[in-house]
Specification:
The chain has about 230 residues and is α/β, with parallel strands linked by helices. Helix content is about 45%, strand content about 15%. It is built from seven helices and seven strands, in the order E-H-E-H-E-H-E-H-E-H-E-H-H-E. The mean pLDDT is about 95.
């Protein structure tokens, strides 16, 4: 069974990706930052999947994480970079700390996780990486300039690494639109209303897209799949 590490797998989309991949036969590794109890619950739903804790904003922690994953699971077959941060600010009020808080995980950690995973995958001669980007990397949101920049960076990083890691490793990205977790506010509802499919997405639909890239022909690489009900093209 192929092995996969999912970062940020304790909650929300990452949790569902981990559970769905485990159900589909993957040997799952669950990364978490601070949410130990939630990660343990996901582990149980994944048949006792191993847990790995790390602060992804620190590169030395990323390197430790991947060393522990390799020692526990062997060299990885696949990686799903899901961990991310999200805040909302007027761009005139964004501080250096606000910027670094977002970019240290959303973009910097995504790169260094890709780097460490690729080093393991090259030992096996093959591998697949899926980066979770965002509709915010495809469309500008006025009060999320820092977040949009980080996710646009993930999209370009995906395309660049697809070239750099070829032909052994494919690198693709899933860009979720509005995904509902029963926490829809007025602003989010306005985005749902503007979505051609007239509904929010389900986290299982993001997991389906990730699974597609993990089993698709490796001739598919450097691609960005928006799972957004058509909102990116509105």
């Amino acid at each position: 069974m192929p092995s996969v590490l999912i970062t940020g797998a304790a909650k929300r989309i990452g949790r569902v990706i981990a559970i769905e991949l485990a159900r589909r036969g993957f040997t799952v590794g669950i990364h978490y930052g601070n949410s130990r109890a939630e990660a343990e619950a996901v582990s149980q739903e994944c048949g006792g999947a191993p847990l790995f804790q790390a602060d992804l904003s620190r590169v030395e922690e990323i390197r430790r994480l991947f060393a522990e994953v390799e020692a526990n699971m062997g060299p990885l077959d696949t990686l799903v970079n899901n961990a991310a941060r999200f805040t909302r600010f007027d761009p005139l009020q964004i501080t250096e700390a606000d910027w670094d808080f977002i970019h240290s995980v959303n973009l910097k950690a995504t790169f260094f996780c890709c780097q460490e995973a690729a080093r393991q995958m090259k030992k096996k001669g093959a591998g697949r990486i899926v980066n979770i980007s965002s509709l915010g990397g495809l469309r500008p949101w006025a009060e999320h300039a820092h977040y949009c920049a980080s996710k646009a960076g993930v999209i370009m990083l995906t395309k660049a690494l697809a070239k750099a890691f070829a032909p052994q490793i494919s690198v693709n990205s899933v860009a979720p639109g509005v995904i509902s977790f029963n926490d829809v506010d007025a602003r989010t509802q306005s985005m749902i209303d503007a979505t051609p499919m007239r509904r929010a997405g389900k986290p299982e639909e993001i997991a389906d897209a990730v699974h597609f890239f993990l089993i698709a022909p490796d001739f598919i690489t450097g691609q960005i799949l928006a799972v957004d009900g058509g909102l990116a093209d509105r």
